[in-house]
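Protein in question quoted in full.
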Amino acid sequence: MKLKLGINDPVLIIEQQRPDYGNLKVVNVTGLGKLPKNRSLPLSARVNASKKP
């Protein structure tokens, strides 16, 4: 693009290395619906059970 625009000034290129996500595990839990802050005991038990591996 620099050559097409006829620009002769140097171009600064900045890159950033992406983090390693090799140890990341994503688990999608469905069926719990919207979780309120004030949870009942049965709902809290379901949430805690879904967090266990």
Remarks:
- The helical segments are 2-5, 41-51.
- The first helix runs from residue 2 to 5.
